[in-house]
Amino acid sequence: MLTIHAADAVHGAPDGVDSVAVDGGVVVAVGAYAELTADRPRARIRRWSGLITPGLLNAAAPALLEAAYHPDPREADTLGSEPLTGDALAALAMDDARWGASARRGLQRMLRHGTTAVRGPFTRPAVRTAVARSGLRVHAPGPAPEPVSLDPLASVPEPADVFAAALAVGAPADLAVFAVRDGAALRTAGAGSCTATVLGGRLVFRLS
User: Fold this and answer.
1) Parent domain of 179
2) What is the pTM of this model?
3) What's the CA gap between 135 and 65, in Å, rounded?
4) N or C of the chain: less Cβ packing under 10 Å?
């Protein structure tokens, strides 16, 4: 479906460019809202407050999904809500089913941080299956970032360093929307300010 995502600004675009048109899973235009809607009167409109950027790449995904356990909300009273590592992880009876369930929860948390791509490799079969089913794009292995975080912005000096791809006509429609006005504010606020994530043209996370 043809959709126009309109916000206050598009990262890296000139002033006045505030919208991205998506058809299926591809970006078909980037421009001013008035121009995009005039050319596409039948498009569905999604209005956001903040900044549209390309989706983010989380290079720490292997550590987050294969060396950390993401508790089920029903376990919050005993395990808390943050990922468990080290001795806390070792104390759990982890099997393939539990690794798969943990990975699915971890992937959902990544989507809530604007992530649309991850770096591999993934050695646990249950984790590989979860990643494949999530639709997140898998990039080639690379250096592991420090610190390991659900927020890809935590380990880089500039937001552009973790964009998974350019936001341009013909590129995959992988977008994130953040409740900030520009890249400097995004660096300060971090990826936890994400209000929506679009993967392959599909809205996969929206802050309720």
Assistant:
1) 2-55+165-206
2) 0.95
3) 15
4) C
The pLDDT of residue 208: 84
Asked whether the beta carbons of 5 and 48 are under 8 A apart, the reply is yes
Residue 171's pLDDT band (cuts 50, 70, 90): very high
CATH number of the domain encompassing residue 20: 2.30.40.10
Radius of gyration of the chain (CA): 18
Count of CB atoms within 10 A of residue 52's CB? 25
Give CA–CA dist 41/111, Å, rounded.
Answer: 30
Rounded-to-integer distance, Cα 6 and Cα 169, Å: 16
Q: How far apart are CA 164 and CA 158, in angstroms?
A: 13
Measure CA of the first residue to CA of the last residue in the chain; give whole Å.
23
The CA-based dihedral angle spanning residues 148, 192, 87, 127, taken in that order and rounded to the nearest 10 degrees: -70
Count structural domains, the chain: 2
